[in-house]
Amino acid sequence: MAFSFDLLLEAIIFGLLLGCFYAAVSIGLSIAFGLLDVPHVAHPAVLILGSYGVYLLGQYGVDPILAGLMLTPFFFLFGAALYRMYYETFEKRGNSAAVSGLAFFFGIAFIIEVLLVVAFGVDQRSAEAAYIGGSLKIDDLRIPYRLLVAFGVALFLTITLTVYLSKTFTGRAIKAVGQDEAALRLMGADPVRIKQFAFGLATAVNALAGAMLIIVAPVEPTMDRIYIGRTFCVVVLAGLGSMSGTLAAALILGVTESIVLMFFGASWAPAVAFGLLLVVLAVRPKGLFGR
Amino acid sequence: MDKTRRKVVGAAGATVVAAAMPAPVFAQANPIKIGMSMPQTGGLGGGGQAALVALRMWVDDVNGRGGLLGRRVEFTAYDDQSNPANTPGIYSKLLDVDKVDLLIAPYATVPTAPIMPLVKQRGKLLMGNFSFQVNADVKHDMWFNNAPWNDSEGWSKGFVEAGVAAGAKSIAVVASDQDFAQNLADGVRAYIAKLKLNKVYDQNYPPTTKDFSTIIRAVRASKAEMVFIASYPPDSAGIVNAIHEIGVGDQVRVLGGGMVGLGFTPIMINLGSKLNGILNFNTYVPGMKMPGVDDFFRRYSERAKAQKVDELGFYLPPFNYAIGQMLEQAIKATNSIEDRRLADYLRKNEMQTIVGPVRFDAGGERANQRIITAQFRGVKDKDQEQFRSPDRQIVIFPPADKSGDLIAPYEKAQKS
Amino acid sequence: MRFWIACLAVVLAATGLVMSGVNEYLFFAGFVVLQAVVLATAWNILGGYAGYVNFGVPAFVGAGAYSALVVHMSLEAPLIVQILAAALISGTLGFLVGVISVRLRGIFFSIATVALVFILETVVINWRYVGGATGLQLTRPGEGWPFDSYTRMLFWVMVIMAVAAIAIARYIQDSHIGRGLRALRDSEEAAECTGVPTLRLKLIACAVSGALLGAAGAPMPMYLSYIEPYSSFNLVYAVSALAMPIIGGMSHWVGPLIGALLLASIQQLVTVTISSELNVLVVGVLLVFFVIAAPDGIVGLYRKWKASSK
To answer: How many domains does chain A have?
Structure first.
């Protein structure tokens, strides 16, 4: 692939847009795993579930972003229930259940995947909207509108959550509960309720993130597998517990993937997220901004 | 959701059709079992479902005439989900559990490639179904590929010649990394080397790729004047969408070539005017002379409508019906269902089918090719019936079927 | 002693079965069930005994399959050499994974193993010699001497492999290696403090586990006469290899055996009668059910029942 600065610039722009989108799909995991220490490998599967929910509503003519917003309350309840189940069966029992906790979420991920196949088939599904299909033309540069829309929504989502978690009482309680449960209890907040709320919030975010996923590209049920790599890469690279780090880490991943895609070909792209993840784990497991 | 409703309506439709036919009488009790797996879901599903309607139609027709050799034909088709990993297991099941007598291959190269060694080893005749060069390495001597093409040069000749005639000297090749696209692209690469064309871009992409904006961007940057694409239905649609998002540049004369799926009615309706200007291969376009094909389409459309499947049925169904016709002729002529005897008959004889006369060469591919190179023109969005008119796909090759001249460059043709 | 007699009996029974005229499909499906026994047993050496959850089973199985393929294509080696080559390469891969376990514990170790799957899959996709993403058609030898068909021979080889895997797991469990692994599973720091050579034991467990997983993957290219990366590195292997020991019971070598025989047989039945899609659902549902209701598996339930009926 011939190297040229034009192409590099396009790759970087594309990567930044993509990266912001990765931040939005990872932020739920940042909360669930980064803050709450829940081994939520089913997070990408719930994300895909969100995409299919948006697709379903799209069949009735609902705009994808609107559909994502409509789904958030249901996903919140689903997340809260899932956490409750996890808490009652594993967290209460203590450390020996570590294998079981992981296995539980792995099982949930596959159940969601198969149910999606049974309900929708293995075909790719896409969303339709006025802003999908055209692109912004600047000189020789072409920026697809769908990426700009996803970028905008993702940026809004990420910033809102980061601010919420650092400025409001509940938000700070969520950040605290992962660090020092006892202290939180002394302050009069019930850690379990807080965690349940946080997990519900993380899952609700997935509804909107799922909407963006189906705007950016067609979805199919087994997509959760590669997103395990991308989301965990972002969360680990950011450093567990760092919300603002999520955006930075996601942008790094997005740009890296985009450059590899452009100059080494589409066949190496799937390994970028996982490769980056391994490098981070090997060199600096704390991540960039970890606690 | 769609699937269950479709199945119920399909079953209801099929019952209505069956009830309308007189009950056949069979001389012998034990049926002849024909089995296959057909991609009914997944990337190839759009074509596979239509093909299945045609095959089942043939089965009903044959049984209505008293069956084959006085025996009823029993037909089993599983869904391999367009996934090559599923077909070896399914065909083992067909042979050892369902104990079928005769096999038909799944639609398309990718699900068929894995079972070639298996059928060769078990000594079974395999009626191919729109595969491309899938027998080249295995060299099974009881393979008969039912498709109007033979090799890459035959396939891409119309496309390449049209591009060269329009002044193109450089070419970009984009191919999915799977059996069909690689077989085709490798042949095309050899062909353009022979013609001494300048290959400025050559990229294989993993079949799971969903976003093609980076590849199209690179194609544009390469300033290629011809763009040959070998892709499967989901990628073909994705590539067309990416071309419209990103653009390939005004120097492109012809674009297309081997994009499977642009002949599937659901994809044609979905892409609509985005198809305009693309110069692609096809197997049947309205206006072509094939004996008995009009009657076939009339009957096919009724069934397809009842089952909520591709109503036009241009691309695959006539050829799948022809598979049945060929089996029927071979069985009747040899008075047996033995694989070896049927294979000998199919090898040596020319058969008359609704897609015209069919002859096979030593490798099991079509000796008398009739693959069409046609350009989409004047296509409107969200209109199914428009495709019944011959002026939506202008045939520019082969000369015998030609219906018009190419419009180049590609950007000009896009607006036609 | 009784154990070895039982092994011999199993091998003899299998030989008899293979030489009989039973339906060919039994051996086709039986191969998959036996492969599951090997996978489950191998996984449990690391997962059950040491507590390190390996989600990257497909990486080892795929590495085994492709190693066998390369050896077959380049040297025209017989099956036994293919299996040994696969075991060697996957064992080395396991050793390397063991090395990274020094720095990574718990979920980080597991995520790293998943990363391995995709990275290896991508390497294979870019390797044209083994077919890349397209895959390769393979011609297998005509006969499966001394049996009637190659499929039957593969089935018999798998029986031997399953017996060997169980024997190895049993040896590890009852030896000082097993004791050490159990100690580090309960608390790695405490084990280190009391002088247990945790790193050496983990490396042994990882290498042995990896080698067996690779050996189980080695016959795949010949079994299907076809190989391609997406099914060789399929994450479903990971869920199954995880589910079977959990369902059977992770503390004893008989657990994975029970879990595999049970689950894989149900899966094959569902595939033949209903659909191949639903068999993944069966795995997922049973896994979640056992993890919640009976985390010590069938072996655990049996022990509780025995204890309560005394």
So the answer is: 1
Give the E-state strand segments of C125-228 in sequence order: 136-137, 226-227
The domain locations on chain B are 5-148+289-358, 152-282+377-413
Contacts A58 to B, Cβ<8 Å: none
Q: What is the residue type of A195?
A: K
A105 to chain C: nearest residue by CA? C288
- Chain A residues with CB under 8 Å of B39 CB are none
Are the beta carbons of A151 and A17 closer than 8 angstroms? yes
Short-list B169, B157, B244, B166, CA closest to B406? B166
Percent of chain B predicted with pLDDT > 70 = 94
CA–CA dist C46, C209 (Å, integer) = 6
- Rounded distance between C-alpha atoms, residue C171 and residue B246, angstroms: 62
Q: CB B138 to CB C139 under 8 A?
A: yes
Predicted complex: ipTM over 0.85: yes
| Predicted confidence band of residue A133 (pLDDT cuts 50, 70, 90) | confident
Q: Render pLDDT for C97-110 as a digit per residue (tens, 0 to 9).
A: 999 888 888 888 88
Cα dihedral C290, C294, C296, C301 in deg (nearest 10): -120
Q: What's A125's DSSP letter? A: B
Domain B152-282+377-413: assigned CATH number: 3.40.50.2300
Is A239 within a domain?
no
Neighbours of A211 (CB within 10 A): 31
Cα B148 to Cα B50, B117, B145, B230, C139, distances in angstroms: 18, 24, 9, 17, 28
Asked if C198 contacts C252 with a C-beta cutoff of 8 angstroms, the reply is: no
What residue numbers bound the domain in which A195 lies? 28-223
> What whole-number distance in Å separates Cα of residue B326 and Cα of residue B317?
14
Chain A neighbours (≥3 Cβ pairs under 8 A) are B, C
* pLDDT at site B23: 57
Sign of CA dihedral B265, B271, B273, B275: negative
Domain assignment of residue A19, yes or no: no
DSSP 8-state class, residue A35:
I
Cis previous bond, B291, omega within 30: no
Residue ranges per structural domain of chain C? 2-234
The count of C-alpha atoms lying within 13 angstroms of the C-alpha of C113, restricted to the half-sphere facing its C-beta, is: 30
CB A218 within 8 A of CB A197: no
Residue A260 counted as domain residue: no
CATH of B5-148+289-358 among 2.60.40.10, 3.40.50.970, 3.60.160.10, 3.40.50.2300 = 3.40.50.2300
- Asked whether residue A127 is domain-assigned, the answer is yes
Nearest by Cα to A270 from B253, B286, B296, C230: C230
Q: Which residues from chain A sit within 8 angstroms of residue B206, using beta carbons?
A: 266-267, 270
Closest CA to C279 of C236, C238, C308, C309: C236
**pLDDT tens digits along B347-368:** 999 999 999 999 999 999 999 8
φ, ψ for residue A117, nearest 5 deg: -65, -45
Neighbours of chain B (3+ CB pairs under 8 A): A, C
Report the C-alpha gap between B238 and B215 in whole angstroms: 11
Distance CA(B370)–CA(B319), nearest Å, equals 12
Judge whether A25 and A209 are in contact, CB under 8 Å: yes
**What's the residue count for chain B?**
416
- Quote the strand ranges of B184-283, DSSP E: 198-205, 226-231, 254-259, 279-282
Which chain A residues are closer than 8 Å to C282 by Cβ?
none
Tell me the whole-structure pTM to 2 decimals: 0.89
**Sign of the C-alpha dihedral, residues B138, B142, B148, B150?**
positive
List the end-to-end C-alpha distance of chain A, in Å, as a whole number. Answer: 41
Q: Work out the minimum CA distance from C6 to partner chain B, whole angstroms.
A: 31
